[in-house]
UniProtKB/TrEMBL annotation:
Occurrences of domain Nucleolar protein 10-like second (ranges): 369-417
Comp. bias intervals (Acidic residues): 528-538
Composition bias type Basic and acidic residues, residue spans: 648-663
Pfam families found in the cross-reference section: Beta-prop_NOL10_N, NOL10_2nd, NUC153
Major location (coarse): nucleus
Keywords of the record: Coiled coil, Nucleus, Repeat, WD repeat
Gene3D superfamilies in UniProt: YVTN repeat-like/Quinoprotein amine dehydrogenase (2.130.10.10)
Identification of the protein by name: Nucleolar protein 10
PANTHER family, per database record: NUCLEOLAR PROTEIN 10 (PTHR14927:SF0)
Protein's cellular compartments: Nucleus, Nucleolus
All copies of domain Nucleolar protein 10-like N-terminal, residue ranges: 1-365
Gene behind this protein: Nol10
Biased composition (Basic residues): 664-688
Amino acid sequence: MQVSSLNEVKIYSLSAGRSLPEWLSDRKKRALQKKDVDIRRRIELIQDFEMPTISTKIKVSRDGQYIMAVGTYKPRLRCYDTYQLSQKFERCLDSEVVTFEILSDDYSKIVFLQCGRFVEFHSQHGHYYRTRIPKFGRDFSYHYPSCDLYFVGASSEVYRLNLEQGRFLNSLQTDASESNVCDINPVHFLVALGTAEGKVECWDPRTRNRVGLLDCALSSVTADTEIDGLPSVSALKFDGALNMAVGTSTGQVLLYDLRSSNPLTVKDHHYGLPIKSVQFQHQLDLIISADSRIIKMWNKDTGKIFTSVEPEYDINDVCLYPNSGMLMTANEAPKMNIYYIPVLGPAPKWCSFLDNLTEELEEKPESTVYDDYKFVTRKDLENLGLAHLIGSSLLRAYMHGFFMDIRLYHKAKMMANPFAYEEYRREKIRQKIEETRAQRVQLKKLPKVNKELALKLIEEEGEEQQVTRKRKQKNLPSLLKDDRFKVMFENPDFQVDEQSEEFRLLNPLVSKISEKRKRKLKILEELEAQGQEEEEEPEGKASDAESSESSDDEKGWVEEVRKQRKLLRQEEKVKRQERFKEDQQTLLKPQFFEIKEGEEFRSFKDSAKKQKLMKKTLEDRLKLEEKLGTLNVSDTTVGSKQATFKLKKTEQQMKQQEAEKQHRQERKTLRRSANHLKSKGGRGRLFH
């Protein structure tokens, strides 16, 4: 059983885990359960709750005892008895089922709308009657007061079949080219039809006239939505006498009050997929809408997401078990999913043990997969001395680092720094003491890290505060008091290295900018003291003088940067000379090398020859190889070049080949002499 949590809502997947093949015997299934822990721990709420290939529709009977599902292949209906937690019966059909409806409280009366325009009726014993409608059907609804079946499909007409009289009645003529879905209000029995043009037509079955029209396609387009093409109605559901939810083919769900033509809420799934199903959950005032990828539960008043379920396979249909927190889905996979969400309601009576099971799981929460692992970067591995484990099974690569076992990490950390805990303890004690000292009257002290930078910031703040007081402006926040830059004056890793090349090259520019800022502040103070209110030049100088001053400043800091670069080059030269002197003073010791077995030492000339060869161009090397006979270059019929190489042989291989050649020659001479004696008939003389 898998447990997931979204928005602090626990969702229990009761059909998670592998399913066993049907052709396995009971004995083999028991043997597998003993061996495999995952199979033993899985929860099989209803036995064989699956289809051979895919399931398309799933419904619950009104008494809550039977769950019926249709799927392929071959097209079939499976009925499950919840009291027995197993399959009651299975019926195979002639063609695939588009949708079906349970007319009775149990499984005794079922109507199927099939692909080949067939309408098939089943009774308790099985197949009862079969008829056809003029056009391909897409959906139908049952009108209980008149016993009429309303069929919609690839036609502008709505076909009516009366089950009491057993004949077709006059059809309803709509303004739409095609209709996708239909639903009948359970209170006042208003018939609603969802059309391919994105409109909902409402018909009164008593007068057989249209009484209302809603343009859902126009209402579904908002400022945030992106739509490709005209939205058509793909799902329809009534809630009570006045509320109606409409799902579109572009992934929007619209909630209507029948007294208004404008929707109360528009919810976008943001996937651009057709809405497959819309359900109402009355206990928490939620709407459960589903497309082929995700099931979303959201508040019908505010539109705020409550939680969502994203199965592994595409969704075909969703069924909410009445008055409970159980949710079932028909998928593009053999297994039909069952989810239990305790927040939505209690478990059904036939599986009340789920409440106790989930309560125990909440009391003893299991650790997630990542609790037993530590994420480390390549630098962390080098600090711990575990860089050699990269590529082994102990490290699993993930993003910019690796996952490793937390126990191995703690052991390595203890070995790399055995006094880490003591240092951590001292640091915590020091922080506690500093916190207590902060409550006393403090003198202005510079931080331990980046003292010069802090002093510079304090001086600049003091100068800026004087100007802002005179101008009566608000003070800007200080960098020293800002929590975002707090670590820069506490952590030694952020210490500015004044001897680094980057700092020395940037320092002239920074110093010039600070001097310019000081000058600007002085000029502003002088202007305010004189009381000049309207001036053409804000700095109190002519523009030519200002430009000449800025150009002089630029020349000055450029010269300083050049000086710093010269100094850096001189320092590098001195370092190189020192390294050269150290290299001369060091005495080189002779190194000994071991020669492999079967090889003889000739001289160091071979290595010198190889080095010379490597320096030559490829053309020169190929010519040399051709002269030696190890390379053969020839023209092919296509016009390109073909090169064949012969590997060089070692001296040992040459000796071995010569011995083999001599041995073959001796055998040939013996064979020839023996044949010569046989031809003369002197076999006996050879062995005489």
